[in-house]
Structures are given as C-alpha cells and as structure tokens.
Amino acid sequence: MRSVVVVHPDFDRIWPFAADQFHRLLARDGEVTFIRLQPGSAERLGDIVDRPDSVVRLVSLQTAVTPDCLRRFTALEEAVLETSGYGGSPRAELTEALQAHGVRVYSQPTEGFWGQSVSEFALALTLCGLRRIPQTHHEIITSLQPWNYDPPGGIGQPGVRGQQYGDDSRFANGTIEGKRIRIVGAGNIASRYASFVRMLGADVAAWDPYASEPSFHRAGARKEWHLDRLVRDADIFVPMVPLTDKTRGLVTADLIRSLPKGTLVVLATRAGICDMEELRRRVLADELSLAADVFDIEPLPLDDPLLGRHNVVHTPHNAGRTKEANAQYARKLYEQFLPRV
Fold first, then answer.
1. Phi, then psi, of 113 in degrees rounded to 5
2. What is the pLDDT of residues 143-191, one digit of tens each?
C-alpha cells in the first residue's frame, strides 16, 4: 500500500511540525512518498506525484488541487485535502469528485488539536496574573527594589507589603485555591481549563447554553444558567468561547461593569467575545487586572496603554502553538484512516 504526503510551505508556515508527524504516522502502515514543495510553488497535485494510479492514501496539505488532478488517482481509497491549515472542509467540488469514486475524505472533527495547549497556557496566565510573575521578573533585571519587602516606613501594617509578600492586594492575588473562577464556555478548551483550576481547589462555575450536561461534569464546574449572575461574584473571570457571529460581543459592557472591583480577567481564546472598550477602561482605571494572550488590536502597538502596566500580563497570541498541538493536528486526521494490518 502506497501513501503520499504533499506539503506546501504555506502549511508549514502555520503548522511547522505537523507534516513530518503525518509522515511518521503513515510510515507505520507501509510505503510513504513525502514531497515538500518549494516556496511560492503553484504546481498542481496531479503534476507533482509520480504514478498517481498507485496511491491508496493521499494527504495534501495546502497544495493546489483540482478535480482533474484527483481523477488521476484511480486507486485512491482515503484522502485528506487540507486547504487552509485551520482544519476546514475542502471545497465541495473536490470532496464530490472523490466521493463519487468511493474515496473516504477526512477533515478535522474539532479544534481539539490545540485544546490542551491553550488551556494549559490559560492556567499559566492565571497564575502569572495572580502573582505578578512577569512584572517582577522584568523589574529585578533593572532594580533591587523588588527585593525590599518592607512596608512604608518599615512599620508592619495589616494588608500591605510585608516579608516576602509581593502580590498586589488591590486585585485578585495569591493562590487559585479558594478563588471563585467564573468561565464563559464549557467546550474543548474551557472544560479542560475548568478541570485544572478545580483540581487546584477553585470554586468553579461555567455558563454555556450550547454545551451538553456532561461537559460540566467533565470539567468539575457548577452549571450557571444565567450569564449576568455568573459575573457578580467572580474573583477570576475567564471568557473562553470561540469567536463566531453569535459570540462576538457576548460579554457586553454591562457585564464587564458588573465584575467586582479587583477581578482578574483572563483572555486566551478571542478578545472579540468581550466589549474591549469597557474592559480596557476598567483595566486602565485600576479596577480590574488582565492576563491576556489575545487582544482587540494585534499586534498591540508599542504605545498601547495596556503594555507594561502593573496590572496586565500580556503575551503575543501564541497559546495554541506547541509541538504537541502540531502532533495532535496530524494525529486527529490520521486516526480516521482505516486500520491496516
């Protein structure tokens, strides 16, 4: 049985480890021809692969392809035609050309390939937001002042800086244990994140009208039926749903105004689900703290007022891209292929 993997550099630009992982997985089952095209190549799939009539499995990763190309693969039984790098279905004309000849066509079933990476990153953002880890890391490079834990005047006072206590008491701080963490979403990423913080001892509640009941059980989260009630007692607020027409602006200005003063807001999926104007206003007014991997403007201009603030942790939208996510991208497609003895 012969398999062929053809990858365009446009795919490597998005998933730099996934194509090679595909190669390794398919090699378990027999002969694999692996072809990596040159940058800017416009070659069509049908002109690239020699002996197309001997190919049983085909994986085309952002390669130019037409129905005429596919008709040359007369022995083909299974195929992956990734056209965008983000797991969308191939063009209908391509799918129809293959299915008309009984070829099984596979696509990504979900965005689960980056679920673990994003949810772990969100956990890290939460810890960094609570403990100001990035800020103090940066500060001790240029100053010894962070090592000085004396309260003002050197006199101990309740509720202020003290021996080895460097958290900012104006905002949610300290441990995840005991915090009221309120999550918008109970899907692939949100349920994982909820399970992490629940394991660490948080009081977790989630709102998601589209998630099934088992999603909340798996996450260890109490199901909240009303979004306006979810925000009222949050120590940590985590909007964590995909950005769609239905979710854009879901977390309204009124909801953000309802967050208790000092709440830590964690953004790890898409900023557009929130009214960012109101969120920015409250963060800049020192009413909320923010730990974010995603923003309303990307990249953030170097003069953006959110950058470098004492109450903001920021990273450049890289939560989902790990070697493991690349491997999962390939694996979740490979698992759909028929078992071969």
1. -65, -25
2. 999 999 888 788 888 888 888 888 999 999 999 999 999 999 999 999 9
Q: Which whole number is the average pLDDT over 238-261?
A: 96
Question: H or E element: which one contains 33?
Answer: strand 31-36
Q: Give the model confidence (pLDDT) of 30-45 as tens digits.
A: 999 999 999 999 999 9
- Alpha-carbon gap, residue 276 to 104, rounded angstroms: 44
Task: Please determine, for residue 87, whether its predicted confidence score (pLDDT) is greater than 70.
Answer: no
Question: Please, which residues bridge with residue 55 across strands?
Answer: 2
Q: Report the alpha-carbon distance of residue 289 to residue 271 in Å, rounded.
A: 15
Pairwise CA distance, residues 316 & 149, whole Å: 31
Only one residue has tokens 């996450």, namely 219
Does residue 78 contact residue 106 with C-beta atoms inside 8 Å?
yes
Strands (E), the chain: 2-7, 31-36, 55-61, 78-82, 104-106, 180-184, 203-207, 222-223, 236-239, 264-267, 289-292, 312-314
Rounded distance between C-alpha atoms, residue 265 and residue 281, angstroms: 13
Answer yes or no: is pLDDT of 88 > 80.
no
The two three-digit tokens of residue 259, written as one number? 């967050």
